[in-house]
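Lab notebook page, bench 4
Experiment: in silico fold of construct C2
Operator: M.H.
Input chain length: 376 residues
Purpose: comparison with the prior construct
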Amino acid sequence: MKIYLLIAKRFLFPRNDFRYNTINFISFIGLFIGAAAIVLSVSVLNGFQGILQTEAKKIYGDYLVEDISNTSFLRDLNMDNENYSIFQENEFLIVSNKKQNLIKFKSVSNESLNDFYELDLQNNFKALSNKDVIIGNLLANRLNVDIGDSIQIISKDFKLNSYSLPDIYEFRVANIFSNRILRANDFLVFGVNKEIFKKASFSAEINGDIGNMKDSSITFLSWKDRNRQLFEATEIEKKITFFTLLLIVLIASFNLSSSIMQISSKKIRDLAIFSSIGMKKNDIKKIFIIYSYLIGLSALCGGILFALLVILLQNKLSLIKLSPEFYLVDTLPMQIFIFDIALLLLGSVFLIGIFTNIPLRFINSLSPVKIINKQL
């Protein structure tokens, strides 16, 4: 194997041959740019996906358990009170200033509002009374209400009371929160009043590890399950971006194949001599396979390392700024995972292997006697 590597290196760096050095350099640059572009693009999508997860956990926690009748399973998890929230939720119609909107009213405890949920509030948090609510800023703008204003909440089914009138509940807007990622500030209302709910069952949101409860009869819904459409949209975009940019590696593999063709054509006499002294055709193929992977792997690793350096600098120094008005964050988020890099290397190595073997087919018809006679 050592002799194959030595010959491949000699082919890779031919002395005083600007033409073939340029061909090798172009093949290297193509793979380098392709690897760097894939890692950087995927890292940006991972970054926005991470923001989605963070914002989802602020509102919904890690997991949801629906329609439970007791909290004994929470004690089995050995969790502190701030790691879970017991709540009731239902859809209602909110009315104010002759404007109305369909909302989800989420009744929780003041302790959960202060410890479990990470709401970006307009004013500092104060404990709510039964007549207080916290609404989203988009909803407040739509209803044209502000802190201290009154709103009315009505059952969306218009269920009538004993006086043949719909139940109408009067509340005061105690605070306003914002959450632009999930647009929860357009439909979600927090309160502590439980009188408006007719059902006795409740639900729980949990933060933390539930590994010791996964085998139980309880069904846990993760933040991904609760925001499946949004999460799957980002996953599809990530996959499309990955495979689209992999076309750069595909084109660079064509260049690498062309480079092998030209090098092998120039070195045809050397190959004939190798064959005449007993080197088998498969051994000659190994030389060019090593040659292609010397270019390919060095370019891929170089591109990945360059992209990782850019990601590190962005995360440490925030070099690329964004407008929060349009992009929801003020700096470009970047995050990369080992799986993404492994998938890139696996796919690229597969492509390089395919396009390396295409030009090597002519070696099967290599006749050292004929070639040497032609050269003489």
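Observations: The longest strand covers residues 84-96. Residues 2-54+229-375 form one domain.
Next step: discuss at group meeting.
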